[in-house]
Amino acid sequence: MTTTAEIAIPQSSDDIAPSWVQQVLQKDLPGITITDVDVKGSINQWEGFLSDIIAFDAVGTRNGTSQRYNLVAKLTDFKRPLTISKEYPRDLHIKLEKFEVKFYSKGVPELLSVAIPSSERESKSGNEGDENPPPADSLFPKCYFAATDPSSMVSVRVMENLKAQGFSIKPNHQPLSREEMMLAAGALAQVHGLSHRLELRSGVPLPEKYDWTDNAAQKIIGTHAYRSTVKAFAAACPDQVDLMARLEKLDFLELVKNLEKNPRLHVLCHADCWVNNIMIKYTGDVPTEATLVDWQAPMYLPPTYDLTLLFLCNTSWDVFHNHRDDILAYYHHKLLDTVGPNEPSGLQSYTLEQLKADFKADCVYGVINRFIRLQVLPADPDLLRMIQQIQEWGVI
């Protein structure tokens, strides 16, 4: 176990011991004594592209009462990306892991600090039966400790175990249903709204506060991935010559640079909200809550960047075509509700119709992001139908 100035950074599951867990929890849980730790092992679902996620239960006492905590330690795994892309450089791997450490260490506390208290939100609910979103602090798993070791460059994030709370990722990359998409869009709306509210309250643009909102290297990697996968997709669709020629001409790096410079409203985007990074909680078979995980690649972009990625990478043609407007309307309602009615915000004049227009205009980013993920999220007939629809909108 490598040691920093305060708390050691574990290098493997062997380093997760009672004394270490007690150190990690003491800041948020003063007086805690950990007597035993049961390490369950890796619980990564699907690729786990950058990190190994090790589940463990910690048992002890606090204020004379027995306590049990279901936790995970998210550790950098330098072997993991090579199972998917041999072109993924180690320096970028380290950088993205450090970004998530900064996100949980500084970003999350500041986002939650500007959330409208649940009591205030309930008192201002104007419509009987109007559903309030889950409390803002449920948007992110509780993170007790996040740090990077300066010598090994291994990052650790110790968080509550969402799987132990009933959250799960859709198996086998199954598409999200209308109801699941509603929840995921609502979670995005809250993150977007909180980031905008934070900017308003602090008076400082997020890129000036956070150096982890500009992932230049990742954009370059994405550009290379897009160029290779779109050629493979074109070869599989010989009857779509014109459409494929248009797709091959798209320049992801240039398009994102233009979007960053666009004067439209920008928010903190997850920028990687595909099915592997969306965890959903169910009551029986009914989805009741969604949360976004893996915050290594956030970006500062218009909110529709996330929404187009959500639709193109996570759902079916039926939901995209027949339920898109309902989901966007739900997102729009939750976005304005999160910002609040009394904030002097540009979002207050951001109409649903403008959101729908921006969504269509930005669908090119969703298409590119889906192609970037074709190695792990294979194409299907629904993808072609969605791209053909987007072509009809004049975007491609």
Automatic annotation (TrEMBL):
Show the Gene3D superfamilies listed in the entry.
3.90.1200.10
**Residue ranges of every copy of the CHK kinase-like domain listed in the record:** 157-341
Superkingdom, according to UniProt? Answer: Eukaryota
Region Disordered: list its residue ranges. Answer: 118-137
Q: Record's SMART domains? A: CHK (SM00587)
Q: Do you know which InterPro entries this protein is assigned to? A: CHK_kinase-like (IPR015897), EcKL (IPR004119), Kinase-like_dom_sf (IPR011009)
In terms of SUPFAM superfamilies, this protein maps to: Protein kinase-like (PK-like)
Put simply, this protein is called Uncharacterized protein LOC118418850
**What species was this sequence derived from?**
Branchiostoma floridae
From the UniProt record, report the name of the gene that encodes this protein.
LOC118418850
